From TrEMBL:
<feature type="compositionally biased region" description="Polar residues">
    <location>
        <begin position="58"/>
        <end position="68"/>
    </location>
</feature>
<dbReference type="InterPro" id="IPR036427">
    <property type="entry name" value="Bromodomain-like_sf"/>
</dbReference>
<protein>
    <submittedName>
        <fullName>Transcription factor GTE6</fullName>
    </submittedName>
</protein>
<keyword id="KW-0804">Transcription</keyword>
<feature type="domain" description="Bromo">
    <location>
        <begin position="116"/>
        <end position="191"/>
    </location>
</feature>
<feature type="domain" description="NET">
    <location>
        <begin position="260"/>
        <end position="341"/>
    </location>
</feature>
<feature type="compositionally biased region" description="Basic and acidic residues">
    <location>
        <begin position="71"/>
        <end position="96"/>
    </location>
</feature>
<keyword id="KW-0805">Transcription regulation</keyword>
<dbReference type="Pfam" id="PF17035">
    <property type="entry name" value="BET"/>
</dbReference>
<dbReference type="InterPro" id="IPR027353">
    <property type="entry name" value="NET_dom"/>
</dbReference>
<keyword id="KW-0103">Bromodomain</keyword>
<dbReference type="Pfam" id="PF00439">
    <property type="entry name" value="Bromodomain"/>
</dbReference>
<dbReference type="InterPro" id="IPR038336">
    <property type="entry name" value="NET_sf"/>
</dbReference>
<dbReference type="InterPro" id="IPR001487">
    <property type="entry name" value="Bromodomain"/>
</dbReference>
<feature type="region of interest" description="Disordered">
    <location>
        <begin position="58"/>
        <end position="96"/>
    </location>
</feature>
Length: 374
């Protein structure tokens, strides 16, 4: 049996009827196609970027789905801030937060002065003189030494190495006294002094703690709000990118359509033999591809009923544009069918509609063969 593709030759310059003298015109077409490929690659990268963004966004939304419905409704009503406004808001928030933190630092500084002015505070004001006191096992017992002079230096540091919040100060104050109680026996004077001053500090710290907790909660809310604003800005930017992609896709589609029409117009007229082969090839299409072929015919034939129960195709009545479009489509479709048939063992069952259309094509060809020659 003759191969299916024997009736549809490869489409090159000769197959399209473009002469070798028009090589410059062919090269122009190739340049246009290259430009389209490049544009499609750029669009594909943009689409991947948008897809990745929304995939990450969905994951974050799933993780944060524990939020209240009130918060979600409020987020929906939030206006999308500009980048400039967001930067201004962030600067204002940071300035206000820094001012509030300075006030908390001032208050805990007052507490430390009260503690260090106590008559029992003197053993804890400077680092322990390990060598002078002969405390050879001190560093084996105490992992992190601490004293109030070190705390003061940390509080006054201007190079960014100082304390970031009052809880860090509180932790080091506790460390001063806990180290002393750990190294010195419970009945010793230093142990008793450290325990007493620690209790006084905890009492004063508990008075400041509500303000510290309130500030931490406020900072957390502000950071969450800033993240929402940033997410809205990103979503707005990607929404704009999606609109740009849609516009660019429309331009590419328009360009392709114009290029296709130009190529079709440059094609020579199809011979009688080629039309006959095309009709035979159409009859070999799958049901799905056959429907697409009928749609191609219907595009340039408003009266053609592609979805009718019985369809009769008159190949000779089709325009050159329709014929060449059909030839391009049928060639690709049959190549695809050949690959599918090879992988599926060659099983190819056609439905009733395909058989009726094939019969109609054969019927038309038979009528034309019976016409008397002039």
């Amino acid at each position: 049996m003759e191969p299916v593709m024997a009736s549809i030759p490869d489409i090159g310059n000769a197959g399209m009827g473009i002469s070798k003298d028009n090589s410059a015109e062919v090269e122009q077409f190739r340049c246009c196609v290259d430009e389209i490929f490049q544009k499609v690659d750029e669009l594909e990268q943009k689409v991947n970027e948008v897809e990745q963004f929304y995939l990450n966004t969905n994951k974050k939304q799933q993780r944060s789905s524990r939020g209240s419905s009130f918060g979600k409704e409020r987020d929906k009503e939030r206006h999308v801030p500009s980048i400039k406004k967001q930067q201004q808001d962030a600067s204002r928030r940071e300035a206000a937060a820094a001012k509030r933190m300075q006030e908390l630092m001032r208050q805990i500084g007052t507490i430390l002065r009260q503690i260090t002015q106590h008559k029992w505070a003197w053993p804890f004001m400077q680092p322990v003189d390990v060598k002078g006191l002969g405390l050879h096992d001190y560093y084996e017992v105490i992992e992190k030494p601490m004293d109030f002079s070190t705390i003061k230096n940390q509080m006054e540091a201007k190079d960014g190495t100082g304390y970031k919040n009052v809880r860090e100060i509180c932790a080091d104050v506790r460390l001063v006294f806990n180290n002393a109680m750990k190294y010195n026996d419970e009945g010793s004077d230093v142990h008793l002094m450290a325990k007493t001053l620690l209790e006084k500090f905890e009492e004063k710290w508990n008075q400041l703690l509500p303000k510290v907790t309130e500030e931490e909660k406020r900072r957390e809310e502000e950071e969450a709000e800033a993240q929402i604003d940033m997410q809205l800005v990103r979503e707005a930017a990607h929404a704009k990118l999606v609109r740009e992609i849609c516009n660019e896709l429309y331009e590419v589609d328009t360009h392709l359509e114009q290029l296709r029409e130009t190529v079709v117009q440059k094609c020579r007229k199809m011979s009688t033999e080629e039309k006959r082969n095309l009709g035979t090839a159409i009859a070999r299409l799958s049901t799905e591809d056959l429907g697409k072929a009928l749609e191609i015919i219907a595009q340039n034939n408003p009266g053609f009923q592609a979805m009718a129960e019985e369809v009769e195709i008159d190949i000779d009545a089709q325009s050159e544009s329709t014929l060449w479009r059909l030839k391009f489509f049928v060639k690709d479709a049959l190549e695809g069918q050949g690959k599918s048939a090879a992988s599926a063992g060659g099983n190819n069952n056609n439905n009733k509609r395909k058989k009726e259309i094939c019969d109609a094509i054969a019927k038309t060809a038979k009528k034309k063969s019976k016409k008397p020659s002039s």
